[in-house]
Amino acid sequence: MYAAADKTSEPCFIRRLILWLALVAGVAFVCLLPGAHAASVPQAPSAPPLAAPVVVIPVDRTIESGLERFMQRAFAEAQELGAMHIILDIDTLGGSVESAEHIGQLVKESPIPTIAYVRGKAISAGAYIALNANRIAMEPGSSMGAAAVVDGTGSEIENVKVVSYWSGQMKAAAELRGRNTQVAEAMVDKQVGLSLPELGREVPKGQILTLTAGEAVKVGYAETTAADVQEVVRFIGGADHPLVTIEASAAEQVARFVTLPWVSVLLLLIGIAGIAIEMLVAGFGIAGVLGILGFGLYFFGHYIAGFAGVEDVALFIAGIFLLILEIFVSSFGILGFLGAVCLFSGVVLSAYNMKLAALNLGIAFLGAVVVVAIVVKIFQHRGVWNRFILRDKLTTEEGYVSVVTRRELVGKTGTSVTPLRPAGTAVFDEERLDVVADGEFIPANRTVTITFVEGSRIVVKEVKQ
Length: 465
Known about the structure:
Strand content: 15-25%
Largest sheet: 8 strands, mixed
Order of helices and strands: HEHEHEHEEHHEEEHEHEHHHHHHEEEEE
Distance between the termini: 191 Å
Low-confidence stretches: 1-46
Number of helices: 14
Number of strands: 15
Helix content: 40-55%
């Protein structure tokens, strides 16, 4: 019984075994196909698709917070486009060290390869930005270097700590891209001195290093020279890729201009002086408009640049309102103090650098005081204070009299009723009048004549017989 059962089940078992073997063989065949395990095997990086553009970002004029904001937007847009390469089109004499550091960090951390194309000059902070790029190309006749730290007036800063810090930043950027750090140091610190055998020249102490395009290539600071952007594109192998240039918008260009330190000071001066003149010398109109435009441009530029928020603008407007209210409401200076605090806070908090903003506001305030003083002096007859000062003179010449002046009495003759010592009473045509003797005392019952009348004062003189 059991044997019969075994015989009848033997073919089924064999068939199942064959099916399992076929399944295993199929799986093994699939696994051995080319590319079946590609996900688990590291592959060589593929070339970017031809649709990936080469993005050109201009880095020109002064390096400041407005440029930094534009660069952030441009790099983000390049990533959205899936760019194969970014070309930094540099032509600048430098600018803010702080902004340059932030832009350099942006370039250094970019996931998209970068090449700095020095078209004209990459001086000071511009050289630092170029050093952070993966590669550097330079236009024939261009230059790079002269990265000494200077103040707002253009005077070189010789503070050891400041020079050492900026020198370290330049050296770090050079080291990151495998460049000679001593060359970067010589661009900042004139006390270094440097021998450049590749160029057959010495940079003595007391001089700052600047490299031409040809010299930069020889010392390894630039990979190539290029006559134009198209040549740079060919150098990086992007000739078959579309070329896209990201330009600053009109609002960003305004923001870049407005956030320049000297422009910010000028706008604040116009704003403070304009509002103050309109409040003190009523009737101008144009002064108030200029004041509002000055403050409006200041906050517009800083808002577009991403530094000012709505709350900063609201704080500033509250300050102006409180200062105006102080003029008409007696608050013992409390409203004025709160208004000044709000105004100061609104300006400072909306700026990129609060310390610099406070300095700019102080300079603008002092300048506005001078301007307002001059305008008030010239137009003092139109000042608002005239409304609180009584300037009318109640003189006889103006037609104002306190009593009736009886000038018709002059020359009349009468009799003294009482002794005049010197005041007394006299009768003229049966009219009793209070009179004053002119000089000497006059006894009663003497003949007198009126010689002078002024208001209620009647002066008489004795008539000698």
